[in-house]
Design a protein that fits this description.
The protein is mainly beta and 516 residues long. The protein contains five helices and 32 strands. Strand 14 (272-284) and strand 15 form a beta hairpin. The radius of gyration is 27 Å and the shape is elongated.
């Protein structure tokens, strides 16, 4: 039979009863039965219902968390020193679930270090720009191929900002080396829809243009380990319902073990129209275990376009929509506490004769203190990107949304992260250095990288082959760290140019070639 005491708790692998979920479920069930015997069915059911309705338990809760949740629920209804609270404690004591602190969550990892960029799509072209800059000086269009905008995840970037993969308008898969800006075709089958690179770039998750209810996971280091995972809707009775039609938005957690995604579901109804809706799920990729994420505040709402925070795996941002109310919002959710906060809300608009939400597709900044999202502007007849600051909890807004620039499908990333592990903060560079521009030769724009060991007054100048100064790119104080400057060559003629960095007593010159 099932264990009824923690002494009989069984450690099991994920392949065995989902890690012992149902085998061990007899322990808290026995505590609830003892509680019912002590105070009666009505009071016990009210306490347990109030616990669930108040969201005192999250999907990652353990048995000790349940004890604390039931105690808090009883205290809410009957008082801290009530007989009902005493009965709850006795029931959980009897099965060996003793009073202790809540389950500790993993500590946040440091954000990636380096120069910050935002990748987005503008007029069909992949575009890179620096955050906070609304001008045109530091904007680059590195890819010659147009990007698909038919899904929420047509492009993805590794954590260190070295590699991008994107789906083009022919549904082919392309790779872009963000160090050299070299683009190459990775797959020309014309079958791809959404993509997500794992943080270390070792695995790629993708969906096809077909409604095949499948996420394909490609192991880029060992292709033999690649696989196709059929999506299902889980239940507590181990019954798998196959209501998923397709998945859209995809994102990996920090360790490259779980994928969060949204899926479009259809449930047939006898003698009626099928029920269709969006929801969010998380897949443990090694064992293909799927759990549902309860991110919607009410049953009327649907959720989609999820993505993880960049410094932890417990915070996500997503869209919340209601077709009946024509209401939409971008929200942040803490998966541990189930705290959910709307960051901005709006209504529906008509585009191409279709009513659809007027904002969405949020993403965290590298330090999780800002969220960027898109919103359609009827004035400019295009999508605009906005940013909104967050408090330390990564969920609560700390200010109003600000316009960033025109564009859609933003991805905020860092170029030049050191190769330290995620558990160790990156160190300040030990010396001044000027890197080789990339790409070189270049046609329209190139990136000039450099590092500063301390805050310094910096000048970055460009000279032609005769030594005449062609322009001053930087003249001012910059902080210590890694920096990048995008040099636009549109107003210059073809030829060899030199760029010189001066920072204190440090001076170094590089050579670059402009070809038109």
């Amino acid at each position: 039979g099932l264990p009824a005491h923690m002494d009989d708790y069984r450690e099991m692998s994920i392949n065995q009863d989902n890690g012992g979920v149902h085998v061990n479920q007899g322990i808290p069930s026995r505590a609830c039965a003892l509680l019912t015997e002590a105070i009666g069915r009505d009071k016990a059911s009210n306490i347990l219902y109030h616990m669930l309705d108040s969201r005192y338990l999250a999907s990652r809760a353990e048995f000790t968390d349940m004890r604390l949740a039931v105690v808090q629920s009883a205290a809410d209804l009957f008082g801290d020193s009530s007989a009902e609270v005493y009965a709850v404690k006795n029931a959980f004591d009897a099965v060996g679930i003793l009073e202790t602190s809540t389950t500790e969550q993993p500590a946040d990892v440091p954000p990636p270090q380096g120069g910050e960029w935002i990748a987005f799509v503008q007029n069909g072209r992949l575009t890179l720009a620096q955050p906070g800059n609304r001008g045109t000086q530091n904007i680059i269009t590195p890819a010659r191929t147009a990007v698909s905008t038919d899904t929420a995840s047509p492009l993805s970037i590794t954590r260190d900002g070295s590699l991008m993969m994107f789906v083009d308008t022919r549904n082919n898969l392309r790779m872009l080396n963000l160090d050299t800006m070299e683009e190459r075709l990775a797959d020309n089958s014309g079958e791809w829809s959404s993509v997500a690179l794992s943080p270390d770039g070792s695995r790629l998750a993708a969906t096809s243009i077909y409604a095949d209810s499948t996420i394909y996971i490609f192991d880029l280091q060992n292709p033999a380990l690649s696989k196709a995972v059929k999506l299902y809707t889980p239940s507590t009775e181990l019954v798998k319902s196959y209501t998923a039609i397709f998945a859209d938005a995809l994102d990996w957690d920090l360790r490259g073990q779980h994928i969060i995604y949204d899926q479009f579901n259809r449930i047939p109804v006898q003698n009626g129209s099928p029920v269709e809706f969006w929801n969010i799920n998380i897949m443990e990729t090694d064992h293909e275990v799927i759990v549902n994420v309860q991110a919607a505040p009410e049953r009327e709402y649907q959720v989609g376009n999820p993505s993880y925070a960049r410094t932890n795996d417990r915070s996500i941002v997503c869209d919340i929509i209601s077709g009946a109310s024509e209401y939409c919002a971008v929200a942040a959710v803490d998966l541990t506490t189930l705290k959910s906060m709307e960051l901005r809300n709006n209504g529906y608009i008509t585009l191409n004769n279709v009513r659809q939400p007027n904002l969405g597709v949020p993403r965290y900044a590298p330090n999780d203190r800002t969220v960027i999202f898109q919103q359609y502007s009827t004035a400019s007849r295009g999508s605009m990107m906005y940013t909104i600051p967050l408090q330390d909890d990564r969920v609560t807004p700390s200010g109003q949304a600000s316009l960033y620039r025109e564009g859609t499908l933003p991805r905020w990333f860092v170029k030049g992260e050191t190769k330290a592990s995620d558990d160790e903060p990156s160190e300040t560079p030990l010396a001044f250095s000027l890197g080789q521009n990339r790409p070189n030769p270049f046609n329209q724009a190139t990136i000039i990288p450099f590092t500063l060991s301390e805050s310094s007054m910096v000048t970055l100048e460009v000279f032609d082959s005769l030594g005449r100064k062609a322009g001053t790119l930087i003249d001012g104080r910059l902080p210590a760290g890694y920096h990048e400057y995008v040099f636009e060559g549109a107003r210059f003629g073809s030829g060899v140019y030199f760029y010189r960095l001066k920072a204190g007593v440090f001076s170094e010159t590089g050579k670059m070639t402009l070809v038109k």
